[in-house]
Amino acid sequence: MTEEVQQQKSKLPLILAAGALVLAAAGGGWWYLEQQKAVQVEMTAESVVPTKALVKKPVFLPLTKFVLSVKGDDRLHYLMLELSIMSYQEASLKELEDYMPVIRNAVITKLSEKHYKDLAEQGSIATLQTELRQHLVSVMSEMSSTNGIDKVLITKMVVQ
């Protein structure tokens, strides 16, 4: 019997070491997964903010008061609009100032194609901002090597 008791005693430290090893592995695995979740949350938070916004502060070029007539079904309507061009490149906005007559002409040309219904409907501002940006980028690509237009913001709009 003494040999049997000794064999059980000699297995006890081995069983305890194996149990400790399993607990340590489980704890390490849990810690690793928690760290990965934290990294994912940080990456998600960073991806919400545009990388350009993290690097530089945007600069704005205001385009004051456009007043023009737009076609309606039965009569002419008037549109009063003010815009700002947003860019993360200050040098590009300085260059855009040199092309101000071209920019104003491009805006007026694009707006003159619009119908009253297009401008008066719900959600038209977001659509108009996107269209104006695309049109200005196209026009400036023909005129200059850089356009620097990251966004076109409508700061005031009255349609009557």
Automatic annotation (TrEMBL):
Belongs to the FliL family. Its main location: membrane. Controls the rotational direction of flagella during chemotaxis. Keywords: Cell inner membrane, Cell membrane, Cell projection, Chemotaxis, Cilium, Flagellar rotation, Flagellum, Membrane, Transmembrane, Transmembrane helix. GO terms for cellular component: bacterial-type flagellum basal body; plasma membrane. This is Flagellar protein FliL. It comes from Photobacterium jeanii. PANTHER family: FLAGELLAR PROTEIN FLIL (PTHR35091:SF2). GO terms for biological process: bacterial-type flagellum-dependent swarming motility; chemotaxis. It is a single-pass membrane protein.
